[in-house]
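Supplementary Methods. Inverse-folding protocol.

Structures were first reduced to a discrete structure-token string of length 157. This string, shown here, constituted the complete conditioning input.
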């Protein structure tokens, strides 16, 4: 949550000449509701089902940059053939990057102590699933450069 997946994904896709897809945005367009509204009106389990459906559809295609929701690796399965970049940022760095307005749009970030607990709970799964880890405690331009170098060096995507 709030690590910069969407911002980084858009820039990465542009630099790599790939299609960019944001899972949360896809769900919001399909449901005609914000993620917060879906959580509030239909519950987290319903939202997680929508996430999995999107990932199942998106991963049938190759060569795209997909920004997943922060809980997706915990609640859903991602095909093994996927290149998973873990954007590793300290919790405080994430909070400082998000304005109050942005935090309000994220249902699981509205209670800071709960968000910090979720962060701690999820971090090991993120690390285990990642193909590649990038330190996001630096500028976005710096860590995007690191990701692009990794992709071009390994000839993945």
């Amino acid at each position: 949550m709030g690590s910069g997946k969407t911002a980084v994904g858009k820039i990465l896709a542009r630099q790599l000449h790939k299609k960019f897809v944001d899972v949360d945005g896809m769900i919001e367009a399909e449901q005609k509701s914000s993620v917060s509204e879906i959580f509030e009106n239909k519950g987290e389990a319903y939202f997680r089902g929508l996430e999995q459906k999107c990932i199942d559809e998106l991963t049938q295609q190759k060569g795209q940059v997909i920004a997943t929701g922060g809980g997706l690796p915990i609640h859903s399965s991602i095909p093994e053939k996927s290149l998973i970049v873990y954007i590793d940022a300290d919790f405080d760095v994430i909070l400082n990057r998000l304005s109050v307005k942005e935090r309000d749009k994220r249902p699981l970030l509205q209670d800071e102590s709960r968000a910090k607990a979720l962060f701690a709970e999820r971090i090991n799964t993120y690390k285990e699933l990642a193909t590649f880890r990038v330190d996001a405690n630096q500028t976005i331009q710096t860590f995007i450069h690191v990701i692009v170098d990794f992709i071009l060096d390994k000839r993945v995507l």
